[in-house]
Specification:
alpha/beta, UDP-galactose 4-epimerase, domain 1, 2 domains, seven-stranded parallel sheet, globular, binds uridine-5'-diphosphate-4-deoxy-4-fluoro-alpha-D-galactose, carbohydrate metabolism, EC 5.1.3.2, UDP-glucose 4-epimerase activity, Sc_DH/Rdtase_CS
């Protein structure tokens, strides 16, 4: 297939682009490099530097595309609370322009990076796709708004639409000559922050609260290897059906606490990694774990890199040899 990958210079987008190329697809990456890196665009992809809302139409006009994988987004929860306008514009308005370009150029498929943040504080864990969507911040609300737009375009215009709701993406893609991992200018995610301590670029890790209603008092999250996540995108492309909007949670179904992650990083790196208990971070739910049955049953997706050691070792390999 000929595919447009928006945000293909970012962490998840670049890894998915590498998997798509590996599977024999033709890939055009569109990225404004506001948070992505030119050197993360995998070899073999055509790169177009441009802002999503403005450039998507021109790119799609340039050839018959079979699908779009849409990763380009602003994704800092804290920033979204302080500067919501960036999220309504950069996520919702830009995605609307993309959807309009998709309609105009009759692109049949769209696979979208949605998020567990669309659910907010869950009533029940593990979280199924049928759970109520009550995002607790503008980031999650902006992604949910895009999900709603996609449903309406599937119904009205026959788009084959898929939203993949990621839980905690981690690890790195190390195969096929590419080394692709997380390197955000503003890093907020637990595993890369802990590994910065091991690499000597940060003194200690703050543990945001040790009095949560969890077995060891720290928050529990469902960490999913970025290569497993990429596999799901390929399956989603294959299973996309005209006139339907399908939503799938992507997680491993296993939760690990912040302390378990820090302990794993100590084992993997051999570094003592000093940890300091800090106040809870606003908006953090205690436990987020995916019910992955729908993706397993309907897409045939089975994550295979679910060991936390494997996820951390791959992230560490990437951090050390960058
Ligand atoms: N944490 C710490 N110290 C840190 C950083 C994180 O204790 O320095 C904790 C957090 O409080 C949380 C866990 O580690 O309990 C994981 O935090 P991350 O920031 O790595 O990930 P989140 O669970 O907050 O975020 C993920 C996605 C978001 C998405 C969110 C849904 O990365 O995009 O889930 O709630 F919005």
């Amino acid at each position: 297939m000929k595919l447009l990958v928006t945000g293909g210079a970012g962490y998840v987008g670049s890894v998915c682009a590498a998997h798509l190329l590996g599977a024999g697809h033709e890939v055009v990456v569109l990225d404004d490099l506001s948070t992505g890196h030119r050197d993360a665009v995998p070899t073999g992809a055509t790169f177009v530097e441009g802002e999503l809302g403005a450039a998507a139409g021109d790119v799609l006009a340039g050839g018959r595309f079979d699908g779009v994988l849409h990763f380009a987004a602003r994704s800092l929860v804290g920033e979204s609370v302080e500067k919501p306008e960036r999220y309504w514009d950069g996520n919702v308005v830009a995605s609307f322009r993309l959807l309009e370009a998709i309609r105009e150029h009759a692109v049949p498929r769209l696979v979208f990076s949605s998020t567990a943040a669309t659910y907010g504080e869950p009533d029940q864990v593990p979280i199924a796709e049928t759970a109520a969507t009550r995002p607790t911040n503008p980031y999650g609300a902006s992604k949910l708004a895009i999900d709603h737009m996609m449903t309406s375009y599937a119904n009205a215009h026959g788009l084959a639409a898929t939203s993949l709701r990621y839980f905690n993406v981690a690890g790195a893609h190390l195969g096929d000559g590419h080394r692709l991992g997380e390197r955000h200018a503003v890093e907020t995610h637990l595993i890369p922050l802990v590994l910065q301590v091991a690499a000597g670029t940060r003194e200690s890790i703050s543990i945001f609260g040790d009095d949560w209603p969890t077995p060891d008092g720290t928050c529990v999250r469902d960490y999913i290897h970025v290569d497993d996540l990429a596999d799901a995108h390929l399956l989603a492309l294959e299973h996309a059906t005209a006139g339907r909007h399908d939503i799938y949670n992507l997680g491993s179904g296993h939760g690990f606490s912040v302390l378990e992650v820090v302990e794993t990083c100590r084992r993997v790196t051999g570094h003592p990694i000093p940890a300091v208990v800090a106040p809870r971070r606003a908006g953090d739910p205690a436990v987020l774990v995916a019910a992955g049955d729908r993706a397993a049953e309907q897409l045939g997706w089975k994550p295979s890199r679910t060991e936390i050691e494997r996820i951390v070792s791959d992230a560490w390999e990437f951090t050390r040899h960058r």
